[in-house]
Amino acid sequence: MLQFRIIETSASYPDVLLHRDRDENGKETVQIKAIGIIEGQEDMFAEESIIFDSYHSACRFIEDFTQKSAEDFCKREGISYW
Fold first, then answer.
1. Strands of 16-22's sheet, edge to edge?
2. In 13-58, at which residue ranges do the beta strands (DSSP E only) sit?
3. pLDDT by residue (tens digit) across 63-75?
4. Residue 38 is assigned to a structural domain of this protein
5. What's the structural domain count of the chain?
6. Considering the domain boundaries, does residue 33 fall inside one?
7. First-to-last CA distance in the chain?
8. Is 82 inside a domain boundary?
9. Domain extent for 12
10. Nearest to residue 47, comparing CAs of 82, 16, 11?
11. Is the pLDDT reported for residue 24 higher than 70?
């Protein structure tokens, strides 16, 4: 089962990292992160956490996350290189 995954996006958006972890209450959390740097401008950073009831659900979410999902996340968060 997947613990983390890096999704490569098109040249317009930063790559996206997904990371699974378990909190102290036993809930599974998947963090979605995108970080981009444009020289001479402010750095871009977006993060979202999603809580799942089971390990398998969290891992399945990571497996099913596509390049389109990653780009949609960047669009929703307002980060792009153009």
1. 4-7, 16-22, 28-36, 44-52
2. 16-22, 28-36, 44-52
3. 999 999 999 999 9
4. yes
5. 1
6. yes
7. 35
8. no
9. 4-77
10. 16
11. yes
User: From CA 28, how far away is CA 75, in angstroms rounded?
Assistant: 25
Amino acid at 32: I
pTM as predicted: 0.86
Helical (H) or strand (E) element with 74: helix 67-77
Answer whether 7's CB lies under 8 Å from 66's CB: yes
**Residue written as tokens 């997947």?**
2
List pLDDT tens digits, range 27-62.
899 999 998 877 667 788 999 999 999 999 999 999
> What are 5's two structure tokens?
């995954």
Q: Could you tell me the two tokens for 78?
A: 């307002």
Quick count: other Cβ atoms within 10 Å of Cβ 29? Answer: 14
Cβ atoms of 15 and 6 within 8 Å: the answer is: yes
Instruction: List the CATH number of the domain containing 28.
Output: 3.10.450
